[in-house]
Every structure is written in structure tokens, then in C-alpha cells.
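Q: Hi! First time doing this. I have a protein sequence and I read that you can turn it into a structure. Is that right? Here it is:
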Amino acid sequence: MEGEEARNLLDASLTWVREHHGDVEVEAELVVRSEAELLVERGDDAQMIVLGSRRPGPVTGFILGSVGLRVLSQAACPVVLIRGGTVSHRPQNGDIVVGVPEDGEEADAVLEFAFRAAATRGVPLRAARAWQPPPPIVNRHPAVLALSETRGGLESAQQSDLYARLGPWRRTYPDVTVIEHIELGPSVEMLISLAASAQLLVVGRRSRLGTRYVGHVAHAVLHFADVPIALVPTR
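A: Yes, that's right. Below is the predicted 3D structure, encoded as C-alpha cells:
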């Protein structure tokens, strides 16, 4: 994009925001350097980065390219991706869905973002976790057998753990209505299904130094969930 064309695009964007969201403070900056490098650098001091995708449908997923993938895998702040063409069709009164990992450190990272987003928007938060039965070799372990035979069994243990994870955040955000969702099956299928009626899906993003790896759950929902997605760095 040429300098004049880029400046015209920035000016048009500023005008649109000021006309539609006059209470939002907005500024534009034209910088001659790598887009990915700039966004990753600015992410060190930002609360959020927002990226768009050109294609409108869920079949082809988000079209990110090298810039988007680098920002996703390296940004220090959460990155929100919005699929082109679907924003105006999303349910404005839908809830926010967050996939809650079992790992405490990862769970706190995504829950902090999700609770804050729900409080800001004044909508319910659906905290979801999928679980799978242990493989046969693990099922024969005495501790697992004992847990399976207790009232409620393994699913009850998952519910108790989710309740405990949510406790501190419920106290921090007492006005947020929280809906707990436990489901037997793959995490990806559960999140894609719940996202169909949501206005935002929040998932954790894992990174590997020197790669564009974001984790299999994040990778899958980017391709198949037709909803704005917030990827929150967890490690």
C-alpha cells in the first residue's frame, strides 16, 4: 500500500469511529516498518490487539497470513480476531463463552480477561469445560477407580474443580452472572457449539518460542468457530 493510500485509509477509519463512537478516544499513526513487528512491539504495553480476517464464512476459517500468525504467537497481550462480514450479524445480547483449562495458571489468565469483558459489556459469562474419561490403562489405577465409584464420579470432580477455579473471580466481579457448563467430549466441539449463540469466545493461547504454535484448541476454533475470538496468552 502506498503512503498516500495508507493515509487516506487511516483518515477514513478515524472519521468512521468518531461518527459511530463519539465517546471513544481514537488516534491514528502511519509507520513505515513491518506490520507484524510493530504490532508485537506495541502489544507489550497494550491491553488488547484487534485483527480482522478477509473471508466471511466459517468453512475457510480466519485468513491470517504470516502477519496475523506472528502476532498471535508472539504478542504479550490478548489478541481478538474478528471475521470479516459477520460482525453485524452476531447476537448483541449473547453471552461470552470462555474455555476454562484445568491448569490453574492458564485458567486464571483466560478468566481474568473473560470476566473483565463480561463486566464491561454487562452480559453473562458461560464458563465451559469439556472432559474425557481416562484411557483404560489409567482407569485401572486404584485412585481413579475409587473416584469413579463415588457419587457423581469423575464428572462431579470436574464440576468441583471448575467451581473452585471460578470462586476468586466471582468475588472480584460480583455483578457478573456466571453459567457453569461441564460437558463430556472434545473441547473444540463443545466450544464451537457454544460459540454459535455467543458474542465472544475466549480461549487460552499457548506459544512455543521460535514457532507460530498457538495450541490445538485455539488453532481449531480459529478455523471453525463463526464468532469473534479472543486468544489470551497463558505461557
